[in-house]
Write a structure and sequence with these properties.
single chain, 195 residues, mainly alpha, 0% strand
Length: 195
């Protein structure tokens, strides 16, 4: 992730914690961790140029404090510790993996690559399309397949985690499948130019 994306994700992920200390600002019934993870997952896989690649651990180092604080707020608010810890661990794993895959995605200076297409379609596209239909029509009129793909998206998993106050399953199989597709679509690592 580039420094600008890390700064943006950090700022967005601290918002739930700031709201918790604002009188009447706490997000009732929502998972602070899910909301904080949304920013990191949305930005971790963003395709970047060679000049902007960073080690995935850079993203984790900056993600860890606001995500840990959000998890602590969830537990303080009554969420089960085991479920919150599991969601926290899976969220960090998704952020690290997506950041690593994005950093290693083949970049040949082309505007289009298989990785970019898979990331756009399955990570953010399905979620945005589903929510556009829901908010635009006022009811959930999204086709069933679009809704299922949106729930399988790592971003959709984080949004669901945030809105439901916790994850439904202990292992997020759908997001893991999408991350596996991103890994396949990344292509071979481009050879580095010798200095």
């Amino acid at each position: 992730m580039s420094p600008a994306l890390i700064a943006l994700a950090f700022a967005a992920s601290t918002t739930p914690a700031l709201l918790a200390w604002t009188p009447g600002g706490e997000l009732i019934g929502a998972s602070q961790l899910g909301i904080a993870l949304t920013a990191w997952i949305a930005l971790a896989g963003v395709p970047a140029s060679r000049a902007n690649t960073r080690a995935p651990w850079t993203a984790i180092a900056f993600a860890l404090p606001p995500l840990a604080l959000a998890a602590a707020l969830d537990v303080r608010g009554g969420a089960m510790l085991a479920q919150t810890a599991t969601s926290f661990a899976w969220g960090l794993l998704l952020v690290a993996t997506m950041s690593s895959i994005a950093g290693r995605a083949q970049r040949e200076g082309r505007a289009w690559s298989p990785y970019n297409a898979v990331w756009l379609a399955l990570v953010v596209g399905t979620v945005c399309a589903r929510f556009a239909l829901v908010f635009g029509c006022g009811v959930d009129v999204a086709p069933h397949a679009l809704g299922a793909l949106a729930r399988w998206s790592p971003l959709g998993w984080a949004l669901e985690l945030g809105s439901r106050g916790g994850a439904r399953e202990w292992i997020p199989w759908g997001p893991l499948a999408i991350v596996a597709l991103l890994f396949i679509a990344r292509g071979r690592r481009a050879p580095e130019a010798d200095a």
